[in-house]
Design goal:
The complex is a heterodimer of chains A (423) and B (167). With 423 residues, chain A is α/β, with parallel strands linked by helices. Helix content of chain A is 31%, strand content 17%. The chains are: A alpha/beta (423), B alpha/beta (167).
Chain lengths: 423, 167
Amino acid sequence: MGQTMAEKILARAAGKGETFAGELINARIDMALGNDITAPVAIEEFARIGVDEVYDRERIALIPDHFTPNKDIQAAEQVRRMKEFARRCGIKHYYEVGRMGIEHALLPELGLVLPGEVVIGADSHTCTYGALGAFATGVGSTDLAAVMATGELWFKVPSTIRVRFEGRPGPWTGGKDLILYTIGKLGVDGALYCALEFSGPVIGNLPMDGRFTIANMAIEAGAKAGLIPPDRVTLEYLEGRAARPFDVIVGDEDASFFQEYAWDVTAMEPQVAAPYSPANVYPVSRLAGTELDQVVIGSCTNGRMDDLRQAAQVLKGRKVHPNIRLIIIPATQKIYLQALREGLLEIFTEAEAAVSTPTCGPCLGGHMGILAAGETALATTNRNFVGRMGHPKSRVFLSSPAVAAASAVAGQILHPNELGEVR
Amino acid sequence: MQTIKGKAWKFGHDIDTDAIIPARYLSTTDPAELARHCMEDADPSFPGKVSPGDIVVAGKNFGCGSSREHAPLALKGAGVACVIAESFARIFYRNAINIGLPILESREAASALQEGDEVEVNLEDGVIRETGGGRIFRAVPFPPFMQEIIKRGGLINYVQERVKKGE
């Protein structure tokens, strides 16, 4: 019997010829990640294990990105503990403000997560790296501590749900719309304990940035990993970037899947998730006219170059509606600099948007754009649970950068096609 | 392992980690401080009324969302002795086992038990019963490997032993 991509990657990491869904294995970890919220707990637990050194200084990344630049004294203390630990253990990939970026944009950018690898992160959106063909999954701080000490972790090999996108997407339909549609169909626990694997011609034509968006939100359907088999687009992205040699691993032709879906995206409108669940998804036209107070474009889901270019395409020559605060957050310093060079930051600023240094900030209601009671936001982020961006009585809708930018101009949710000509 | 005896607090489906412990309180790792805001966005009165030894009973996909270990830590800090749910989100499931917060998966118990019910849970055999000779439910048993982690009191103790043995 053939193996799925997830089964093959995990088999190799476990040093076995093959493994199948349901098996418990111990896997060697190629890269482990923590942030300023999860690493402090992991550091405490690591100390309890009683080892002096981490398993590999080059295979641990500690990225202070959630409450940074430090939002208050407590946040500063957490980052200080991280920094001291990173220095003491000689952790190579620790990045301070000014060099850092949102972890799930930064690690791929640095070539630190690669096809065929097993990556864990004490952050649920670690599944982002599945876009590169890595088996990447979110874990907790204690798991991270165990990996920092031993370089290994236990997994139950997941079964795989395969999703295939067919047809020709419209000009405003991209990675965010495909994954919101998927979550809407599967529900927030539709892929619980499973890996999601995305394939088909639409994925084949999708640039890496859109693929990262898709893999990033696999967790929102409960999935353990969101995998996209590497192809020419993947290898081009990794050219001159990969920090280590790697092997591409894809599933066998005769692998068996737990479930399979095929969806035609030809007539698909841009998708929007309404409060309070990322599975509460509608075509944008159904929610058009919803009045907004704030729009956020950024996050590990949609803060990359293609996202900013899409927002700029909509915002160029236009002004943000007077009722709206538009906050745009390039995900890494490199993306920020590229956006500056391409003139995007000028377009944003002239449109009267605020542009921030990289941070997860508002996505999780941390800082840099918190909502008051009764306020409504449209964000390109990944979750819209109760209280996610601030007050428990605020609301968050989720969309692509194009819909977010068009809605920021209109002051209400709007399909980008409906904006009209720039005057 | 001991038998847990406590009052049931009932929650619905898809209780996410932002509801269990909102991110605005994540700039601390102190379980007592986290406990003061436990389940706040699902039921603001919960931190005030939960007593040590009580049991949280919930629907499917309990603990979905972020990987924050602060979620099981907040529940443990609030004195919650066990969570019974129809199903758990996978990161929460790992985290709970890793930090030693007992969890049990039972669709029947999760739907039958009501708020305020007095419940007895035997973690050894996964039997859940209503106090006073009421209904009896059986939870899905943990695989032996996970029982090992639970028996040793969490992942850190388990890893400690392995490191000592030089495995």
